[in-house]
Write a structure and sequence with these properties.
The structure holds 2 protein chains of 2 kinds. By secondary structure, chain A is mostly beta strands. Chain A has one helix at about 5-20, and strands at about 30-35, 40, 45-50, 55-60, 65-70, 75-80, 85-90, 95-100, 110-115. Chain A has one domain (about 30-115): Cupredoxins -  blue copper proteins (Immunoglobulin-like), CATH 2.60.40. In chain A, strands 3-9-8-5-6 form a 5-stranded mixed sheet, with no helix packed on it. A 4-stranded mixed sheet of chain A has the order 2-1-4-7, with no helix packed on it. The longest helix of chain A has 15 residues, at about 5-20. Chain A starts with 5 loop residues before the first helix and ends with a strand. By secondary structure, chain B is an all-alpha fold. Chain B has one domain. Chain B is globular, with a radius of gyration of 20 Å. The relative contact order of chain B is 0.18. The chains are: A mainly beta, B mainly alpha. At the A-B interface, α1, β6 and β7 of A face α3, α4, α5 and α7 of B.
Chain lengths: ~120, ~280
Amino acid sequence: MTRRPPLSVLALAIALAAGAAAPAIADDETQVQITLKDHKFEPAESTVPAGKPIVIHLANQDATPAEFESKELRVEKVVAGGGAIAVKVRALKPGRYRFFDDYHEATTEGFLIAQ
Amino acid sequence: MLGALIIVFREVIEAGIIVGIVMAVTRGVRGSRLMAGAGVAAGILGASLVAAFAGAIADALNGFGQELFNAAILSLAVCMLAWHNIWMASHGRQLAAEARQLGQDVRSGARSLVALAIVVAVAVMREGSEVALFLYGLVAAGGTTSRDLLIGSALGLAAGVAVSAVTYFGLVTIPARRLFAVTSALITFLAAGLASQAANFLQQAGVVTIWSDTAWNTSAILSDTSLFGRVLHTLVGYADQPSVLQVVVYAATLAAIFALSKAFATRAPMRPPQTPLAQNG
């Protein structure tokens, strides 16, 4: 194990390049603010226009971490206790999209309604 | 307690299956146990660090540090798996020829152990950081139920380790001459699945915006959060609502690893052995 495989160096370079690419912010995004408090989303339902990209801003006011997740929105992101995150969501077709806290899925859920 | 058991189990299961596959692939290689152990240990350390700095990672890179970090380490794992398969394809014949003289312990290449140890570390780190955060939440919440939840978590961890063992012992019952073909295929699909997950994180961060529509929705038939769905998700990258980009990346990764393995396999007999096989791992 004295020789390092050259491909591992290449792989690291690719990984770092992926990490260095900073996301651009588009103008036509719909911003949605959601708060997590006492393991409840507030508001529990948000209405957004269909056909436009969305940015969900989640502020976690609980002391415990949560994992903001949605199958339909294809989102999975950890938010630290007392922390805040933003997630980008593609332009949606009209419909009702469920999201939840993966650590408390049975009790902590909310919906995004695209119209 | 049951809730905690299930949450921890389903996080551990993904890493467990990958560890089981890697251990089966490297069975008999000198130093492979040490490497797998080092990979798991590095993964647990990494998971603790990721969990401890979850807030800082999330805030980094305009608030999309978490996605880009995940995409980066998943890409690293994909490269390691691809490199392992290509290396095995180019040295497999030579190794098979030498194995008769050198004994069973050189079935696989010791040099690719580092690559696979990195894969183990990445898998444990990714799933482990979520478990660590979940457990931290339990401890921070305190109360009378937290002890029950910790016991549930320990049982979930044990069940996840059992899945790892089942994967390993299932694979090692395959006759040695066919194990190589089976594990090569497994690793190729595993890599394609991880590449598709990496693509999803790049879409979530808004780095990539093309092909974001849902390619299909089979959640009613087989949800990828069900136990069987999760196993398939880990093994072959099954997703019940993937984006078009994820499907494209998945297919491209499969094709690339398959084509490169083939290309290098045909050249293998012409090349002399590069290094003597490592004896001390």
